[in-house]
């Protein structure tokens, strides 16, 4: 006859094993916090006995009544998105090797030149750059390719369709937003349409502007980055500057490729020489 | 005589205005959740009357007893770090224009070649790449420059001191860690020391390996990225491939520069030509 007091008979939280010797609890249904506390304590005892390492608890926002109980049990926050909170308890005495939360925002800036050598520029309605003619910039969405993000931003802000050419440069800056860092990719874009239709909510005005006029509005207060935009444009147009262009490398389960960006011209130099030799 | 019932006399949460027409509440001291609820409700009424937009509440983890109250008042999570949770309520009926949480992890891969054309490679103790000779890779810490991150990773894993040369390529991949994306910068590094001392906890072995041997372990199962590493090494060594190298652009309040990375060789092409003409 089974002993009713064995730990096998204590009810525990539903959990799945992860690949790193830990467990993941994904709470979904409403639960009284006292019931939850009892289950969590029993589960933690069991997981400790089993030598589990990281214990993850994911709480959707409608279960915010359980956050306090999880924290009191020794968990810390790992990350949060608008509709859920992820908490982590690292059981071993060793250092927690779990990667930290995402640390960077990825932004894109679009350098769009027409065949008169004019650049597509906008004025924003708000913010510290208000009144200044600047290139279209924006944040790459979660799960979005850099190439797609910059095409979307230019279209949204100016109505102009563009094709991605290459990354001319990128910058990294810290403490941009709640202590997070930013990588900004400056992208060379080829315009496929020319008639401007601005996004009324964020953009005050948009136009095609000669590079000299863009350069003329620079002041000593301007960031050096803005000066590089002009230098890079000129280098690209006048003397064949090579940026990084994308090639697919792997394909995910949804059939979407990942991309590697590199100096395709320089990588292909020898191949081209060989082709020439073979002719 | 003042009317004691005017809203000016109701106690409210301590808040500071932000630059975008919103307010920020940073809770620090313990507070009973009923007291907190009363103050929050009074504060929200006041902020709505004042036409405030985003209301931010930052709760350190020792105040997890207040999370449920904030959520019940209509807030969503914005982001969390181990020791705090940030909640947001967007009051206007318009779309919330507040940037989302950080979306990317930034990683570095170190291509370190000695003057015999051998590459510094490691074998990891754990993970899916266990047993494979691979380049040193690692995550850039929050607030850390890419250049500093890759020097640190190589030193930690192999004991080798290196100097940053340039970014040869970068890749972007999605759904790497809790739905977040990753940007991996492949960095060319110049070794300043050669004697290997491995980090015992994560690294099984490290060595200098001829590029042919590295190439020989490739299989059809390998990601295309690995093949590009060889192509990029060869292009760099044999025919002067130009990657992106860093230049300082701005300096933050702590005196630390931000960097822009670009094809310095191509940008300086004309300047060099001019110099030559002037000679």
Protein described:
Two copies of one chain form a homodimer. Chain A is of the alpha+beta class. Chain A has three domains: 11-90, Gcn5-related N-acetyltransferase (GNAT) (Aminopeptidase, 3-Layer(aba) Sandwich); 104-239, Alpha-Beta Complex (Nucleoside Triphosphate Pyrophosphohydrolase); 245-278, no CATH class. Helices cover 26% and strands 34% of the residues of chain A. In chain A, the strands form four sheets. In chain A, strands 1-2-3-5-4 form a five-stranded mixed sheet. Chain A has a four-stranded mixed sheet with strand order 8-6-10-9, sandwiched between helices. The first copy, chain A, has a two-stranded antiparallel sheet with strand order 7-11. In chain A, α1 links the parallel β2 and β3. Mean pLDDT of chain A is 87; it is low at 1-7 and 275-279. Chains A and B meet through α2, β4, β5, β6 and β9 of A and α2, β4, β5, β6 and β9 of B. β9 of chain A pairs antiparallel with β13 of chain B.
